[in-house]
TrEMBL record:
This is NAD(P)H-quinone oxidoreductase. It comes from Rhodobaculum claviforme. GO terms for molecular function: NADPH binding; oxidoreductase activity, acting on NAD(P)H. NCBIfam families: quinone_pig3 (TIGR02824). Residues 16-326 form the Enoyl reductase (ER) domain. Keywords: NADP, Oxidoreductase. Pfam families: ADH_N (PF08240), ADH_zinc_N (PF00107). The keyword ATP-binding does not apply.
Amino acid sequence: MSIPSTMTVVEITEPGGPEVLRPATAPVPVPGPGQILIRTAYAGVNRPDALQRAGNYAPPPDASPLPGLECAGHVAAVGAGVTRWREGDAVTALLPGGGYAEYAVTWADHALPVPEGMAMDAAAALCETYFTVWTNVFMRADLQAGERFLVHGGSSGIGTTAIQLAALRGARVFATAGSAEKCAACERLGAEAAINYREADFVAAMRAEGGANVILDMVGGDYIARNIKALATDGRLVQIAFLQGSKVSLDLMQVMLRRLTITGSTLRPQSVAAKATIARALEAEVWPHLAAGRIAPVMDQTFALTDAAAAHARMEGSTHIGKIVLKVA
C-alpha cells in the first residue's frame, strides 16, 4: 500500500463550538513498536470528541491532538513486533486520538477484525461504545441474566449498544429517552419499557418494578440522587459521564442501608494493557453475535470528514438516534 507523506485531517483550531473544527493538512503518522497504521475509511463521532473540542477533555500526552477515538479501515503499515495484522487487513479499532484523519495510529491489540458481513461505516461505530459498555456494565457492574437494567440516554450510541448487549445476555432492560420516537427505538432494540423522561418519573417506574439492579448513567447532576432512589437493594450505579455536572450534594445513608455500589470509569486514560483485555473479551463474547447479525450498531447519519462541524452540531442537538460517523475515504 502506497502511503503519502501528508494527509487531510480535521483539527481543533481553538476551544469552542462545532465551528472550530477545520480541515487541515498534517504529516501521516508512523506506527511505533506494537502499533499499526490504519488507512481510515470511516471514523466514529462521540461525546468525548465534543468535550475535547470544547477544551474540557485533554488528550493523553502521547496521543494525537486530533479528535476521534474510533475508526474502521485497512491496515496500511505495522510497527515492529506486530504479528497478528498484515497490510490490507480490514479492522475496526479503538484509538487514543487522531481518528478525524485519513490515517490513524493505534496499538495493534486495540484493533479487532471487522465482523463478517458488516459494512465499514457500521464497523467504525463499534469500538468506543462497545468497549465502554462492556467494561462498565459487565466487568464493573457484573450485570446478570434476569436482573433489571436501566440505561439513561437509551437512544444514544452508548444507549443503543447497552440495550442490545444487556438484552442479549438475558437482563430485563429499561431505558430513558426524550421523545416518543426515541422511546420506540429503544423498545425495538430490546428494552422492555422506555420511559419518556419529559413525561414520566423513572424513579417511580423502576421502583414499581422492584428497583434497578444496575443503572448506567451519563447524565449526572440531579440524576445521581434519583438513581440512588431507583436502585434495588444491592444495586450498582455506574457513572460514565456528567452531562449535567458532577458536583452534587448527596445523603449517602441509603448506600449503607441498602448495600449500594457507586462506581464508574472513563475509557481513554486506561492503560494499553487494560484496553487490550477489553478487546479480547469483546472478540470472544460479542464479535460472534455481531457477525451473526443478532446485534448491530444503530446508524444515524454519515457526514464527510470535512463536514465534521455539522456532525458535531447534530450530536449536540440530541436529535440523533444511534451513531454518527464521518466518511473519510
